[in-house]
């Protein structure tokens, strides 16, 4: 008798690099457990993904479905990184709703060929996958681009906003369900969470996705219990069907760093290799969705120059020009890169000692995994929660400092922050803390570790559920 086919899982990320990459890492972790993965994307994202799975992961099957054509988006725009501005974000989210029919057809084909998955793991923003999964009796798990603390905090603030009014921005908030070793004030909470507008189309869409999330089978979280375990019960309290959150990360640590997939990576590696001094370079990147003005980018450039420290800076701007003479002045200690770079490769390099970051959750986890402290400069959404948790909760980083007039952080502030992170007493303390967190993170994904065991229990429950054709986690 032949052996039975491996279990099958479908993974469907939102079309943003910060959402695609961790789910690719999860796919690789699943193939190590002899799971067949169908990874859904659109043609415009396929080449990016192909380069990251290649021949080393034959159990990951890439399936393309067409991205809808809509007059509200530029032609060929299939990833949030391609949006002309964040003003198009709502239209992009709306467009993804038109993927329902091809997704339904995909599950229909799998059903007819007796190859239905034991679950579908889909992005929070693709909440409409839940009723389609339910039609085929397939559990749907949610995956966010956020950690447990930010998830629990955002839901708490959203639900309890009327009770959170305080007399000043500096007064501590009383947050139901939280026992914190640091203080959260109103100024630490992004305005979008404190004053949700029910008439705002983006708020309505997010609320709708949240309702689908609350009714799903469970949540995959790219984190580990030693880091965020205390906040898990608060987060799980918002679910209506006893669903669990499964901390199975950091997902990047299940798979060793691959060879660079972009020429610029080779250039960065070469440049870092030439800086023989270990732990001497600061890496600067603000993600793919931050929209920094040209004036702000000028301040970053001059601040890095003033700091005196070697740096690699990944710039995402189609309008900004390097100030006259700057690249010549810093050419022996600064590298400005305008293309995609493999952030993990840079952070893993022995010459990298600090990270000036927007504190997107992937960046936070990568810095922890590689033991590199962060100079935190949050800009949008959950980044403020991540930065607060990282700096005040974990003590593994420093804050950039005060924002000046017109929302601009000045060059002196940037320079001082870089100097303190790279050579100051506070920077040394943060470096020691993040290196300890890195050791714990690596243990968590090894056999017997908390994330490894959580992933095992999750797969066991899903396989048992598929045998009984049940939808709930119990």
List the helices and strands and how they pair.
Elements: E1 8-12, H1 17-31, E2 36-41, H2 43-53, E3 60-64, H3 89-96, H4 100-112, E4 119-123, H5 129-135, E5 140-143, H6 148-160, H7 191-194, H8 201-214, E6 218-221, H9 225-228, H10 232-236, E7 244-247, H11 263-274, E8 281-285, H12 294-307, E9 311-314, H13 326-330, E10 334-337, H14 343-348, E11 352-357, H15 361-370, E12 374-376, H16 383-393, E13 397-399, H17 411-423, H18 425-444, H19 450-468
Helix pairs in contact: 6-16, 12-17, 15-18, 17-18
Description:
The strands form 2 sheets. Strands 3-2-1-4-5-6-7 form a 7-stranded parallel beta sheet. The chain has helices spanning 17-31, 43-53, 89-96, 100-112, 129-135, 148-160, 191-194, 201-214, 225-228, 232-236, 263-274, 294-307, 326-330, 343-348, 361-370, 383-393, 411-423, 425-444, 450-468; strands at residues 8-12, 36-41, 60-64, 119-123, 140-143, 218-221, 244-247, 281-285, 311-314, 334-337, 352-357, 374-376, 397-399. The two termini are 33 Å apart. The chain has 2 domains: 8-249 and 445-468, Glycogen Phosphorylase B (Rossmann fold), CATH 3.40.50; 263-442, Glycogen Phosphorylase B (Rossmann fold, 3-Layer(aba) Sandwich). Helix 13 (326-330) links the parallel strand 9 (311-314) and strand 10. Residues 470-474 have low confidence and may be disordered. The chain is of the alpha/beta class and 474 residues long.
């Amino acid at each position: 008798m032949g052996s039975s086919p491996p279990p099958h899982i479908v993974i469907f990320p939102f079309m943003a690099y910060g959402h695609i990459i961790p789910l690719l890492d999860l796919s690789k972790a699943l193939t190590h457990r002899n799971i067949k993965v169908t990874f859904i994307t659109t043609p415009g994202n396929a080449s990016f993904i192909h380069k990251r799975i290649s021949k080393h992961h034959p159990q990951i099957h890439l399936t393309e479905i067409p991205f809808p054509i809509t007059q509200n988006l530029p032609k060929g725009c299939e990833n949030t990184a391609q949006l002309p501005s964040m003003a198009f974000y709502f239209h992009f989210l709306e467009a993804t709703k038109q993927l329902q029919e091809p997704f339904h057809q995909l599950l229909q084909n799998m059903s007819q060929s007796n190859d239905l998955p034991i679950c579908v793991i889909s992005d929070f923003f693709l909440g409409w996958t839940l009723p389609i999964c339910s039609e085929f009796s397939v559990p749907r798990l949610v995956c966010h681009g956020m950690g447990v603390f930010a998830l629990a905090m955002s839901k708490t603030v959203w639900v309890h906003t009327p009770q959170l009014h305080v007399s000043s921005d500096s007064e501590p908030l009383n947050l139901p369900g939280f026992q914190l070793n640091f203080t959260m004030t109103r100024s630490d909470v992004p305005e979008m969470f404190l004053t949700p507008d029910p008439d705002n189309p983006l708020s309505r869409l997010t609320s709708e996705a949240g309702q689908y999330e609350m009714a799903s089978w469970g949540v995959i979280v790219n984190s580990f219990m030693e880091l965020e375990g205390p906040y898990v019960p608060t987060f799980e309290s918002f679910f209506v069907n006893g669903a669990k959150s499964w901390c199975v990360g950091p997902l990047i640590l299940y798979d060793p760093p691959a060879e660079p997939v972009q020429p610029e990576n080779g250039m960065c590696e070469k440049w870092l290799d030439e800086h023989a001094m270990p732990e001497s370079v600061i890496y600067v990147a603000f993600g793919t969705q931050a929209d920094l003005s040209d004036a702000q980018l000028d301040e970053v450039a001059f601040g890095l120059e003033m700091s005196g420290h070697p740096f690699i800076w990944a710039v995402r701007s189609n309008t900004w020009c390097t100030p006259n003479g700057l690249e010549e002045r810093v050419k022996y200690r600064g590298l400005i890169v305008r293309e995609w770079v493999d952030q993990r490769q840079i952070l893993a390099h022995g010459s990298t000692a600090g990270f000036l970051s927007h504190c997107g959750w992937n960046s936070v986890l990568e810095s922890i995994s590689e033991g590199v402290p962060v100079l935190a400069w949050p800009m949008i959404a959950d980044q403020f929660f991540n930065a607060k948790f990282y700096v005040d909760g974990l003590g593994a980083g420093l804050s950039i400092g005060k924002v000046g007039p017109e929302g601009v952080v000045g060059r002196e502030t940037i320079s001082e922050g870089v100097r303190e992170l790279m050579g100051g007493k506070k920077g040394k303390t943060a470096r020691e803390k993040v290196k300890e967190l890195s050791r714990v993170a690596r243990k968590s994904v090894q056999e017997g570790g908390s994330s490894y065991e959580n992933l095992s229990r999750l797969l066991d429950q899903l396989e048992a559920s598929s045998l009984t054709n049940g939808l709930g986690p119990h």
